[in-house]
Task: structure prediction
Amino acid sequence: MHGAIVLTLAGCAGSSLAPHAVPPSDVGGLAPATTTLVTAEDVATEAVDADALSGILDIAGFQAGVRRSYAGGGRAIRRVEVRVLDFESSDGASMYLAWLRANVADLIGDVRDTERTLFGDVPLYIHLPDGCCPREPAVALAAWSQGPQVVRVLVSGAAADARKAVRLVREVRTSTFPAPDA
Result:
């Protein structure tokens, strides 16, 4: 709730840092745990080569973003994180998305399965634990662009490699950008 207040205040102040869309308030019955604004520095620090990604974000016209995390109630789904990132143009969003797809291992580790697609040409990347760390969960990542925005969904937990992760990603898609009424 506190994060929503911050977003509302930023929008009222006329700040260009307020994102145009925000992640849904509920995903798969999981309540949001935190909501925060995301800066270019926040995005860049996830990369192995943060300076390179920082340059790409600058060229792509990154403006602002919002991250909402949802806590799972058990081992099946431990956490869902949704980010909506705003760029100056659709081309900028596509540039970041291309970087993300080429560097997905920076975010979730080695990817074993890239054959699954969710909707259109959106791949579902899955990292499975390799036995080295007994508590390491499976992680699924999907990202797509909608105009000048990129939506990124990360699902972690034992069921992240199964239908539940696919359902959660699809739910985020339809609730972040609902279809216009006919």
Q: What stands out?
A: Confidence is low (pLDDT under 50) at residues 1-16. The helical segments are 2-12, 40-44, 50-60, 90-102, 104-108, 163-176. Strands lie at 32-38, 62-71, 79-87, 125-127, 139-146, 149-156.
